Amino acid sequence: MLVISQLSRSGLAPASFSLDYGECVAVRGPSGAGKSLLLRSIVDLDPNSGEVSLDGVAREAMDGPAWRRLVGYLPAEPGWWDDRVGRHFSDWATALPLVERLGLPADAGDWPLTRPSTGERMRLALVRALTQSPKVLLLDEPTAALDAASVSVVEAMIAERVRDGLAVLWVTHDAAQGERVARRFLRVEAGQVREEAA
Ligand SMILES: Nc1ncnc2c1ncn2[C@@H]1O[C@H](COP(=O)(O)OP(=O)(O)OP(=O)(O)O)[C@@H](O)[C@H]1O
Predict the structure, then answer these.
(1) What are the Cα distances from residue 24, in Å, to 11, 32, 68?
(2) Which of 54, 65, 115, 117 could lock 111 by a disulfide, CB 3.0 to 4.6 Å apart?
(3) Where in this chain does the record put each ABC transporter domain (predicted)?
(4) What is the pTM of this model?
């Protein structure tokens, strides 16, 4: 279980909630409310205060890379650092079934990074996040740039992982998507995070 206690940073009031394994919680709220700040604070990308623990182990007990292997994060604009798509994956062969299920060709690993479209980058970044086998996955509008067919595949893929025990926080502006993917909801408004009824 991921437990967050009084987590805060500039732009985010102290937030406390927990997330169980096998649970997907939708995070909703207006643009600029602090949803991305919340996710970034959980993965410890910016200075923040408060307590975050996984299975009773404090985040501070491990180094940043170890924490981010357990708590994966798919930003709204994923970062890339090499000139070929495949070099961003520790093992392209492991990624391939997910890549193909998401409608990308097997040779996408050889693509220069200048080639993938916004939606293709998002799907590739999702595969990268999933193949790292996190225990918790934080998704920031993962389907914003995708067509309806790809949205369905992503939702199905995440639902399978959740059934297998993955814990997910899913930021979405799409009310219908929130209802499809989650039973529990967090609302972020002006930096305040609270539980919200469905
Ligand atoms: N590093 C920063 N320092 C100060 N303020 C920031 C920083 N990063 C973002 N902000 C501000 O904090 C507020 C919340 O930003 P955030 O990106 O979390 O919004 P959001 O809820 O994810 O919005 P959207 O739905 O548009 O993605 C915004 O007003 C933003 O300008």
Answers:
(1) 25, 22, 18
(2) 115
(3) 2-198
(4) 0.95
